Amino acid sequence: MAFKISDECIMCGSCAGVCPVEAIAEGDGKYEINPDVCVSCGTCADQCPVSAISEE
Questions:
Q1: How many other C-beta atoms are found inside a 10 Å radius of the C-beta of residue 49?
Q2: Spatial distance between the Cα atoms of 4 and 6, rounded to a whole number of angstroms
């Protein structure tokens, strides 16, 4: 199951920098995770300073 970034995202980019498959990109007002690329490793969620990333 892929992870999702909520509206709590502060656009810091820390999640994109740690994603091993580059599934995270800057979106409109928040970062977005491509569910077709995400391998559900959870690295991004562990890195998020505001806990804006969770499993769908």
A1: 9
A2: 6
Query: Residue 51 in contact with residue 11, Cβ under 8 Å?
Result: no
**pLDDT reading at 4 higher than 90:** yes
How buried is 41 (Cβ within 10 angstroms: 0-12 exposed, 13-18 middle, 19+ buried)? middle
The two three-digit tokens of residue 42, written as one number: 């959870």
Which residue type sits at 55?
Answer: E
| 5-30 confidence digits (pLDDT tens) | 999 999 999 999 999 999 999 999 99
Bridge partners, residue 26, by sequence = 31
pTM for this prediction: 0.91
